[in-house]
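Late entry, evening session. Most of the bench is empty. Finally got around to the prediction I had been postponing all week. Sequence below, unchanged from the version circulated by S.P.
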Amino acid sequence: MINAGGLIGALIQGGLNSVAEGRLQNALGSGGLGQVGDILGNALGNKSEGMGTAALGGVLGGLVGGGGGLGGMAKGGVMAALGMLAVNALKDYMAQQAADPAQASDAQLTAGLREPMNEQEQEKVQNIALLILKAMINAAKADGQVDQEEMERITGRMQEGGAQEDELAFLRQELASPMDMDSIVGAAGGNLQVAAQIYAASLLAIKADTPAEQAYIQELGEKLGLVEGARGEIHKMLGV
């Protein structure tokens, strides 16, 4: 099984473009997710505040501290960072989820803020990570198909970071596949929390400085069902 979370971290750390890591660090700063403990405490219930603080510490250690390698990035909490972005962008929606303890617990799992407790939850987390990974690669094609030179550059960086052969094969297959936004949107299944994570990750995958990329991210947000306010909050946190 590929380490989807680790691959996402490696792509953010420099595999796709030069701005992704800086954007995530911007979100982790005082102007973005610096108040994540309060956000999580209000949105997901009081017990989640400690989880948020611990996860944030892991993210800061793994990203700002410069932790490298696929395993290190996964342990650093890249998925938790994306989850916290989603929670912050969907504060009102998440507050409604908190009214039901079962929904709140599921929201914490989906946001990467608690460990899976069984195989079913582990599979769910893995599927979300795979979907986010595919969404990032799909977004990278917004300006056109990734050519062979670019593909080799990306996979080369991943190999340097410790990617295994099955993970490199997965990346090559996804990079070579035609762009398919509808399959990404369909796999999100109308879950706004997952949708916000996909949207944030897609913004990390592109610079969004060309008409094609801007049109892609606009269409993606609309098809995912994210209201303009939530999309705007994600842009603000990432400094886009």
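Two things to note before I forget:
The two ends are 33 Å apart (CA to CA).
Residues 206 and 224 are 18 Å apart (CA to CA).
Will write this up properly tomorrow.
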